[in-house]
Amino acid sequence: MKNGILLGKRGIIFGALNDKSIAWKVAEKAVEEGAQITISNTAMACRMGEVKALAEKLNCELIQADATNYAELVNVFEKSQEILGGKIDFVLHSIGMSPNVRKAIPYDDINYDFMNKTIDISALSFHKMLSAAKKTDVMNEYGSILALTYIAGERAFVGYSDMADAKAMLQSITRNFGYIFGKERKVRVNTISQSPTMTTAGTGIKGMSSIFDYADKLSPLGNATADDCANYCVMMFSDYTRKVTMQNLYHDGGFSTMGMSAEVMEIYDKGVGLEK
Ligand code: NAI
Hints:
Blueprint: E1 10-14, H1 22-32, E2 36-41, H2 43-47, H3 49-58, E3 61-64, H4 70-84, E4 88-93, H5 99-102, H6 112-135, E5 139-149, H7 161-185, E6 188-194, H8 200-203, H9 208-218, H10 226-237, E7 248-251, H11 262-271
Parallel strand pairs: 1-2, 1-4, 2-3, 4-5, 5-6, 6-7
Helix pairs in contact: 1-10, 4-6, 6-7
The structure holds 1,4-dihydronicotinamide adenine dinucleotide.
């Protein structure tokens, strides 16, 4: 898909770790659509060959930053503006991590130091990113800032643990900062609520294959892939969505509106011997 809908635009993509990452696909699509970008990730991720290879492939600069560190975020914005030669049109926050989920600690027996870390990395980092972008005044009018979320921020999903709390906060930050950024600078702030996706972060969730399969069978269009998500992000960065802000946008094949599907009912009927 090459329509040049990001021609002349400058963007920053946070969170590409490997070729399964949603951010990786977004970086590729954004460049394919004509944008110039920089990419950013943690020192540890940047040391890995894969992230460097992406930067080389896309001919873009890789700027190291821990998204919980305000000064490092300011540096990413200032450097990106310098490297790309002008104000920024779009930013992707594709960052999430929970030590509680990684260590499979039950939600009702949670480690609170870990929980602080989850919230700092997965939610507060977005507030810091928005604040750093506003204070450095790097965003162009009608610029688009996106973060990725999951429906567990609004509904209970077993196994999602404190990531659910972080996602609820991420979505709230989107609304509250979105108002200020829109009013004062005409900058758009939205979240995309993506289907379960088999990435490094995704496969760290306990029971991910069941969550993935259930969502796929419940959704009339099936799960949205990372590639599908990248297409949606590119549209949200483009001028075709100039008046969309403060929204949580479902990108889930219809999952969020479903209650029961024929496919799930068939499996349930078989499982409990209810076939007619
Ligand atoms: P991923 O594991 O490829 O990406 C997560 C990224 O977060 C990695 O690049 C990692 O280095 C980065 N990160 C972790 N700590 C950081 C820090 N302190 N500073 C800067 N970066 C840091 O996984 P994926 O799935 O592409 O995740 C991207 C986003 O999509 C996350 O917000 C995730 O919660 C969200 N999402 C994922 C879904 C899934 O099923 N995979 C579903 C819905 C949303």
